[in-house]
Amino acid sequence: MNNSVLVVAEKPSVARDIAAVIGADKQSDGILCGNGYIVTSARGHLVRLKEPQEYDERYNKWDLSDLPIIPDFEFLPIEDVADVLERLTSLMNGKEVTEIICATDAGREGECIFRYIYDCIGCTKPVKRLWISSLTAESIRNGFANLRPAADYDKMYAAGITRAKIDWLWGMNLTRLYTKHLGAICSIGRVQTAVVNMIASRDNEIEHFTKKPYFKLKLANGAEWFNDSGDYFTTYAEAENVKNKCENQPCKVTSVKSNRKKENRPLLFSLTSLQAEANDKLGFSAATTLIVMQSLYEKKLLTYPRTDSNYLTEDMASILTERVAQLAILDEDINELMPSELNIDSRIINNDKVSDHHAIIPTEYISGAANAELSKDEKAILEMVITRFLAALSPQYEYSETEYIFEVSGEKFKLKNRQPTNLGWKKFYIDSADNARNILLSEGDTFTARNIKIAECETQPPKRFTESTLLKAMENIDRRIEDKELSEYVSERGLGTPATRAAIIERIIKVGYVERKGKQLISTDKGKKVISLLPDEVKSVEMTAAMELQLTAVENGTISANEVVNGITAKISSIIALENSRKHTSLAPPREPLGKCPKCSGNVFKFTKDGKSVFYCENSPKTCFFRIYEDDFFFTSKGKKLTESIMKTLLTRGKAKISGFKSEKTGKTYDATISFKDRTDKNGEPRVGFAMEFDNKPKK
Q: Can you give 651-687 as a three-state secondary structure string?
């Protein structure tokens, strides 16, 4: 192992794939080595940015005067993977390693995972970069033949760490700011708050939507009335007049037009599109789909799940015929359903649309699925991916669409009928194929219009978000942005990343902004209130898109990372200054006073945090010293706590009779009546104390 090149992959499975190609076929102490290489891996992120209180203990108290918190950013090991970091540190800084190859995922996040570790452990070894988007043997060999200098990706790393810093600054400062001002925990995130805003805005539209009735007129064969102004009536009377005019009258076929049409097959699955379909068809949450996908990936049946691409790379075109043959081993019907030549075109292969990872497809080990132990959920997702894979490689769906125009008493009716001519990819989704009506009519034919129906309809509000529609909205966020430059920028990036979208949805549910009701995601009262109180610059998708645009500028070298961080810091400072200068509506429920303070007649309230309660006067500590904790020593030393009931009695009657006090010396119990009695602490400051009157002797 002397004078070895260390290859650091992002995941153990990738390390194994790389090692198999480069000849590192010997295992030693959990690593793979051979042919001059040592191959190991991280397990995603191994280090994290410090929390505020880890820089300074004073930040344990959320004080507005400390904002904004702007640290010199430092990293700490993540405890759960400390052993992995320790092993990597030993290898990367070891004498036997002369050079390191960064083989983490080809993208901004993969670059950050490696460099965070490299910088955190103080490594100074020379580094080269392996940049590949698929894990075929050919791709790995080509990647090693064309290793790049690590410096080629300095700007990409600068964009990645800048994103981490601005997310930290945004979240840590604004969460504390709005929590203090609004009187309840308010989790603020650059992406999550924009997502909550989308859901709350949709719910607001629904709640304020006024349904309006309208009426349609239909012939017995389903043809619908229309004219130049539309295809419905605003009143029942209008529809009824036309119905009476046409009922039992001759109806003539005035036009029959047929066109041959095609419907393109679906794209291969990205993680987001798979999560959306699994939510629609199986009712799975995005998080559940990701967990199931990860399991199938680890069982080597499906490719890497966290991908934003619906395409494969050119080097993968040669494997597709063999992959379909492997699937035919699982199901003989596939040979009958698939065409003789697979439809491998730019809808399947597109290098420009593959960045970190290619689309999700079955692996070369898929024929082993028949003998694999799979859960019901795993079988469902596996079948979904296989079906999409086969459909994407099939011909287009072809059909004939015929439009019929009928005329009755000067009124026109229209009917469209589809007749499949080549099922193509819809052989795999037979339920979605068109069901044609058997219409035996030609132009000039006539019949009597009978049983004309009036369909009573009403306008419908927008539909509530499901995880499926929310994921699609996050992926296609450009449609919600009016600014053309911003819209074009995010058109292929979306809000969040495929790897984080499920976690964002779970996060906004966990903090109480959104709740699941069946498949629907509905904003809670808390979520609506928080969104209503936040300014647009904190909650808008435009804000998030603008930040992403700046990060791209960092990656392109047209702006420095420091400029972006300084700009965000200035924005946060201005938000803090604005919020500190205005009044806020509290999110906390109205407080009910327990009684009047015996010192100043102010209201006494109870406050609980982290399971501990304190009773305090509203004028404390400025002009009143009435403040007592429920675990006051006077009570705990006698085996009791100061309860809310006892405090109410003391405030209203001045005294409270308590049973079951316990003597520290003898362990015996006794009853007593207590009352307030002032005392002083060791510094001579006044404090609230208690006096005791015995009602009986200690019990035996």
A: HHHCEEEEEEEECCCCCCEEEEEEEEEEEECCCCCEE
The backbone region for 70, taken as left when phi is positive above 0, alpha when psi lies in -120 to 50, beta otherwise, is: beta
Question: What is residue 490's predicted lDDT score, i.e. its pLDDT?
Answer: 57
Joined together, the tokens standing for residue 621 give: 């500590």
Q: Are 519 and 283 in contact (CB under 8 A)?
A: yes
Distance CA 640, CA 636 (A): 5
| Cβ contact 87:30 at 8 Å | yes
pLDDT for the residue 481: 66
The conformation of residue 227, written as its DSSP 8-state character, comes to B
Helix runs in 511-665, H state only: 525-533, 536-539, 541-556, 561-581, 633-636, 644-653
Q: Residue 242 to residues 247, 409, 447, 674: CA-CA distances in angstroms? A: 9, 9, 18, 87
C-beta neighbour count of 73 within 10 angstroms: 14
Mark the ranges of the chain whose per-residue pLDDT is less than 50. 699-700
Cα separation, 204 vs 523, whole angstroms: 9
> Which residues pair with residue 235 across a beta bridge?
none
Strands across the sheet containing 612-617: 595-596, 603-609, 612-617, 627-629
pTM for this one?
0.79
Per-residue pLDDT at 304: 86
**Three-class SS state of 604:** strand
pLDDT value at position 696? 54
Q: Report the alpha-carbon angle 141-356-270, nearest 5.
A: 120
Distance CA 667, CA 665 (A): 6
- H-assigned helices in 414-461: none
> What's the pLDDT score for residue 477?
75
- Produce one character per residue of 298-312: b if its CB has 16 or more CB atoms within 10 Å, e if not: ebbbbbbbbbbbbbb
Please state, rounded to an integer, the average pLDDT across all residues of the chain.
Answer: 91
Torsion over CA: 622, 623, 628, 634 (sign): positive
Given the residues 157, 178, 304, 399, select the one marked as catalytic: 304
pLDDT digits (tens, 9 = 90+) for 225-262: 999 889 999 999 999 999 999 999 999 999 999 999 99
37-41, strands of its sheet edge to edge: 26-28, 31-34, 37-41, 4-9, 97-103, 127-129, 148-149
Let me know if 55 is a catalytic residue: no
Residue 218, judged by CB atoms within 10 A of its CB (0-12, 13-18, 19+), counts as middle
Cis peptide bond upstream of 590, omega within 30? no
